[in-house]
């Protein structure tokens, strides 16, 4: 039987994982209920672009796996959850450290479960706002997940 990582261990692994370390990313929190996560991008020389602002790929990377991880851990073993797509809209340059939060309410999980059970698959969308240290909006990311029941 396969064992799942708990939220504390997953957070620790993310924070030593080379792609996240290299991008300057740090997972600040993942709740044990799998309903919230918070991530920080530490702006530095290795993740700044030609203009000295946060590199767009690092901004996207900080949002990449979290809604899929939160959702699959709430839905359980009977469901498959994949990232299907994403778009990012840059609002202003990231000149400081930046942060984003992922919130997954019980109502949203129930809605996804019900819609997935009614059809072969369901593709929910989530929005993630990325803010700088001054609470200024830097970017908006729209994530699309693919959810289906295991056969």
Strand-helix topology:
Elements: H1 7-16, H2 18-23, E1 25-30, E2 36-41, H3 56-61, H4 66-75, E3 79-90, E4 98-103, H5 106-118, E5 125-132, E6 137-149
Antiparallel strand pairs: 1-2, 2-4, 3-6, 4-5, 5-6
Q: Could you describe the 3D structure shown?
A:
There is one protein chain. With 151 residues, this protein is of the alpha+beta class. It has one domain (7-149): Hotdog Thioesterase (Thiol Ester Dehydrase, Chain A, Roll). The chain has 5 helices and 6 strands. It has helices at residues 7-16, 18-23, 56-61, 66-75, 106-118; strands at 25-30, 36-41, 79-90, 98-103, 125-132, 137-149. The chain has a 6-stranded antiparallel β-sheet. A hairpin with a 4-residue loop joins strand 5 (125-132) and strand 6. The longest helix is centred in the last third of the chain and has 13 residues, at 106-118. The protein is globular. The model has no long low-confidence stretch (mean pLDDT 94). InterPro entries: DUF4442, HotDog_dom_sf. This is DUF4442 domain-containing protein.
Give the mean pLDDT. 94
Enumerate how many helices there are, as a single number.
5
The number of domains:
1
Stretches where pLDDT is under 50 for at least 5 consecutive residues are: none
Identify the CATH class: Alpha Beta
What is the makeup of the main sheet? 6 strands, antiparallel
- At CATH level 3, the topology is Thiol Ester Dehydrase, Chain A
Q: Give the topology string: H per helix, E per strand.
A: HHEEHHEEHEE
The N- and C-terminal alpha carbons lie at a distance of 18 Å
Number of strands: 6
Output the strand order for the largest sheet. Answer: 1-2-4-5-6-3
- Cα-atom radius of gyration: 16 Å
Question: Can you identify the CATH superfamily?
Answer: Hotdog Thioesterase
Global morphology: globular
CATH architecture heading: Roll
Q: Which strand-content bin applies to the residues? A: 25-35%
| Helical proportion, percent range | 25-40%
Classification by helices and strands: alpha+beta
Pfam families: DUF4442 (PF14539)
InterPro entries: DUF4442 (IPR027961), HotDog_dom_sf (IPR029069)
Protein name: DUF4442 domain-containing protein
